[in-house]
Design brief:
Length: 237
Amino acid sequence: MHVSQLFSYWREIKKPERSWGLAWYLAYEFCRRYYASHGIVPLVITHEGLGYYGIQLDSLSCHVNDKNPVTYGRMTIGGDVENWRTGGPGDHGLPAIEMCSRNVPTEEIVQQAIAHMEIEPIPNVSHLNCRHKRWGGAYELCFEIATILALRNDHHELAIWNHSYHTERILRELDPKANMKEHPGAFLFERGDKKLLLAADGRLLDRPGSDKNMWHYYINGHSAFYLADLIEKLIDI
């Protein structure tokens, strides 16, 4: 199965305005296009007092982007797309939720979302020597795993975080590589009082000294869906 097939199934059983699946799927499409080449990362954000608040597109901290950091916009919790360079928070510039409800084909929604964000297809300066360019495949795999889990679980069942605001403290507790230059960050999965941390280079930090590595499993032939199953079992134990 591919993520697009899982999203098609999600569209059949969910109301887009009541779930985060559309936001995650669009973020996944942005991630696999722009993370490695442009240094643009989708980050789960919150707004004080409102809880989960969407997925924001930010430029990564690297030797290219540090000269001109950019926040491009966000997908709202339901999946509407906002370009914050031409609009702002709350303008719901592209009504993707309504498009999803009208059964607009997924490919067309993705195309319009990408067009609405107005990101140049080729970066002005090459990121060839950036860590996100050299190791982007592992981050994209981790984001794909997170997207699969998001499409299977609503946000009140499973919380998924990848912004440093939510991951930094536990990352420093569990990751001996936390201080490395251009650390790729991590994904934090929470269900009830259970937490599981996945370093975005593929290392599963479920306990000190863990040697599980999702990227190694993937390179050795396992699918992203198998790895999502593995994480789901660990968070449910």
